[in-house]
Amino acid sequence: MTLADLRKTAVKKTVRVRFVLPNGMECAVDEHGLARVPALNKTADFNLEQELRSVNEFLLEYWAELDKKGMPRRQTLSRAELDAMTAAGGAAVAGDHDDE
Q: From CA 76, how far away is CA 61, in angstroms rounded?
């Protein structure tokens, strides 16, 4: 799974994906596909694509599904589960282009 795959999945499923980088900072990919590291206050001295490879746990926030308190439904996924989700999304997108 690449950062581009993760961004596409976040947009397609309208979710925010949060994960902790090996350096302890949190990264969030929002439902618009933008990856942000809120704690970063200067130019990054790391490559987000490379750091993503070592992340094993992801938190998905479904903003289209709010509970009674207005909080999004949350789901924690392992790398393998998120890989399967992004692969399924990619297959669906590839299938859509075959029909044209």
A: 9
Provide, for the chain, the percentages of residues in helix, strand and coil under a 3-state DSSP scheme, each rounded to the nearest 5: 35, 30, 35
Tokens of 18: 């949060």
Give the least confident one: 22-26, 45-49, 59-63, 89-93: 89-93
pTM of the predicted protein model: 0.80
Domain ranges, residue 70: 3-98
Structural domains in the chain (count): 1
Cβ contact 23:40 at 8 Å: no
CA-closest candidate to residue 37, choices 15, 29, 75: 29
- Which residues contact residue 38 at a Cβ distance below 8 angstroms, ignoring those fewer than 6 apart? 26, 28
The tens digit of pLDDT for each residue in 1-33 reads: 899 999 999 999 999 999 999 999 999 999 999
